[in-house]
Amino acid sequence: MGEKLRKSKRMVIVAYLVLVHSALLFLLAERFLPQLFRFPRIETSSVADPTQQQEVPTPLPVPSLLADIPNSNGSNSANIGNRETPASPQQPTEVQDTPALIVPVAGIPREQ
User: N or C end of the chain: smaller count of CB under 10 Å?
Assistant: First the structure.
């Protein structure tokens, strides 16, 4: 058993010395022979886009049914003051008292 241990220690030491000497050889060669480690820059050529440039389609005209509704960006701000607020289609007709969880909100009566 002592023979195997001694042999494995020698193998580790030899591997370490080979690694150190190869690193030293690389650093010396890089310092004294820089032309071996200098690579020319390769210019990349540009290629034209293979897909055709397509025009962006224009938006469809607004139907007359929706013409008076203002845009989300507020471009029809002149019409906003003259319009009535539409009623919600799902307004409850009567308040139901159920034992469900009721969360109080400031400024809102319980009936709402």
Answer: N
How confident is the model over 74-99, as pLDDT tens digits?
A: 554 454 555 565 555 665 556 555 55
Which of 64, 66, 65, 70 has its CA nearest to residue 82?
A: 70
C-alpha separations of 93 from 10, 21, 62, 111 in Å: 94, 92, 35, 11
| Element housing 23 (H / E) | helix 2-32
Which pTM does this prediction carry?
0.33
On the CB side of 58, how many CA atoms lie within 13 Å of its CA? 3
Cβ–Cβ under 8 Å, residues 27 and 20: no
